[in-house]
Amino acid sequence: MVLQKSSDLVRINARRTDVFDIFNFKHYIGPNPYLDIGALVFDFALVESRKPLPIEDYIARIGDRYPNLGSQSYESYAHLFAQVVSEVGKLDMDLHLNRWSVKPYPDLVRISVQSLHERTTREVAYFVWDWFEAITQDEDFTFDEQLVRLQNKFRASVYGGPTVYALLRTAYEKGIPAFYLWEEGLMQYGLGKKHVRGIATTFNCDSHLDSEFTTRKDDCKAFLNTLGFPVPEGDIVFTEKEALAAARRIGYPVAVKPVVGHKGIGVTADVQDSKELAAAYNRALAAIPEDQLTRIIVEKSISGSDFRLLCVNGRFVAATERRPASVIGDGYLTLAELIRLENRKPARLDTPTSPMSKIQIDEAMELYLEEQRLSLDSVIEKGRTVYLRKVANLSAGGMSIDATHTVHDDNIILAQDIAQHFQLTCLGIDVMTKSLSESWKSSNFAILEINAAPGVLMHLKPSEGESVDVPSYILETFFESGTDSRIPIITFNKISVEELQATIDHILLQNPNWTIGAVCRDGVFVNRSKKVLSKDYNSNVQTLLRHPKLDLLIAEYAEEILDEEGMFYPSSNMVVLDNPTETEMILVRDVFDGSTVVIRKGNDISIRRKGLIEDYTLGEDEPFTRVYLKETGAIL
User: Fold this and answer.
1) Running DSSP on this structure, what letter comes out for residue 492?
2) Which phi and psi angles does 5 have, rounded to 5°?
3) Are 28 and 537 a contacting pair, CB within 8 Å?
4) How many CB atoms lie within 10 A of CB 420?
5) pLDDT digits over 443-469, tens only?
6) CB neighbours (10 Å) of residue 483?
7) Residue 311, SS3?
8) What is the rounded CA–CA span in Å between residue 410 and residue 420?
9) Are 563 and 582 in contact (CB under 8 A)?
10) Which of 39, 397, 583, 593 could form a cystine bridge with 559, CB 3.0-4.6 A?
């Protein structure tokens, strides 16, 4: 086993008592010299003046938390450290970050771990370092507490929303390029003219008018009523006095909710009398954004269960029953204690990938308990189920139960008929009924509202029942496969502006209607039109791949760019290498099956295409451009 030592007894980041040191952090958003995917790269060494414990001691302690790691053997401390960083980097949230590598140098080891969000991954590395040092010193380490801090950091990132992450992970699994557009606050899936952009389940191809219309619950309800769909009777009110009058006219029980809202915030169902109505009105009022008028819906409360019907591209794909948060008494514990116990369950990790959120204690809960003549201090008899809310709000601790295979055909047709009236990729339809297995035509069925940006986690990870792979349905709306999400890419290790323009002209002669993006260290072009060159090389590449009409990309990735920034995109359809360095040879690593690779070394030419290799020597005065321009026909 090799022990890598800090050179010259110099501590870079190590503290006085540390035996390990990590330093020289660098983050790559895409393929790089160390991994063929986005990665955090850093150096690892042992502090020469101090000795670590035997590696078996670290393995044993780590194995207590991660048994799968404790059963393996490791070449060095660095290999163990890298694997632990990779494992912890999943954050107990089943993140898809599982790639890592170790590259030894004389005085240190360079570790690379797959990364999505730089700050979170960097903190994971420091977290693992602190853990190793705590093991060395035989000190307590508050693992779970610090892991929650890391989970919260990831949740606060642009990737941390459950729907965004689910789509991102599915894109990764399907080979669909995906990246975040920081200036726009959007995710992009696919490249060039094949791409779509969006926020969660809302995309640039959706009608923003339709999306906005769904937020106007009053107008939307009137529209559905016009179409003959079942909606509860109700009124729009502007004051508490009007709300009381509307409830008397409609007849109790009623439901109260803001016209503009989401996630069940400010919604109160089953309001039984004027006292409850006043409290419900105030909750709805508090949920209205400051820039919105005071408009509140008072409507007939329908008995039954709360369901979400989900349509993707006009097609019904999933149904979920949503139940309010509840606890079961044991005859000893108070409600507050039962809630704390329930919140400790692994299913309630309250992370982007956990099936249930933690139960939230707030005024709405306490008022509902009061209606049941209970309080948080009440001891509940053994076996009794106490529901903590009237509304099945998943973000406040409710449960989701898959109901996809129970839905009556009439209800599927209803959902699809509604979806056909909206130019929206995803549409969530919230309904109240005793059972989805009964037709809406013959049951107490009511459409409560529709949502233009429905979440996917309740379907993907229900509290009970089978998972429905909604992210796949969504992405397959745009791309049948990963191949369908890409445009052809030609990658060079070196190319001049003149050679770049000649390549553009050559391709345009064959495809005069194409839009070609091209970038080298000295220029950016769209066809022959020169554009502004950013100092950040990969931002030039991203800008081109963001172009909605781009048919083909040509890009230069020389050694210094690969070392400094890495590549922006994974894989190429054609790679042209002119006397490449060892680092530039990684461009051959990132090619598709069937891609063409042209390599020149001196006057010797090697061409690889579709499993065949052709070697020859350039003729006297024969330009290299003639070789690779001829080969472009294979990918066009």
Assistant:
1) E
2) -115, 150
3) no
4) 11
5) 889 999 899 999 999 999 999 999 999
6) 12
7) strand
8) 15
9) no
10) 583
